[in-house]
Amino acid sequence: MKKAFACLALLTIFLIACAPQQKEAPPTISKTEIKTESQEPQTTTQQKQEIAQEVKDLLEKHKTRVQSISYKYRGPETGNNFYVFYVKGSKIRYNPYLEIKTLDSPDSYDAIFIDKTAKTAASYCIAAHCLYKGKKQDLIYDDAYIATITDLVSGLAQANKVGEEVIDDRNTWKIETNKGTLWVDTFYGVPLKVESGGKTYKFEQVSVNSVQDSDVVAS
What we know:
CATH architecture: Clam
Strand order of the largest sheet: 6-5-4-3-2-1-11-10-9-8-7
Strand content: 25-35%
């Protein structure tokens, strides 16, 4: 009896050992879990540099309609005061706000003349009440230069209209750009107000095509 039981046990072990072993199936990966490089969202340079056509047309207007321009400007460089600007071609003159109004010392000045082509800047005293008229000193161009009203609508990579407003009785488009928010005059294509990086730039008493050569070239 014991011998028969032992034989039965050996036969059972033999059958189990000879049975085909079932391999564990590898884990499956669904198609939704596979990401290829081509499936990743891509932002192209063209998308980043998109400018709505109607906005592009507006921003181009100053190139044909503005040969010269004068205005009063207030921005980060001027504090709470306004500087008076005259711009014609590559020549610029601005009259900074002067704490001391008297111009009776040899180094007194009331105007800065800039040549964008030559990259030069110099201070002058030109007012009728200047006791010592003429050039005072050469200035460092980059320190003296202040972005003009047309500089602020140049070189934009993104620009889209988000509204319309009236500023100083002029119709403007409110435009969001990669440089900030611009309120652009709808006829001349120049900004009357700019907000960028927490700073505000204002342009008032804008007069187009009235600047003479004598206004921007020191004599």
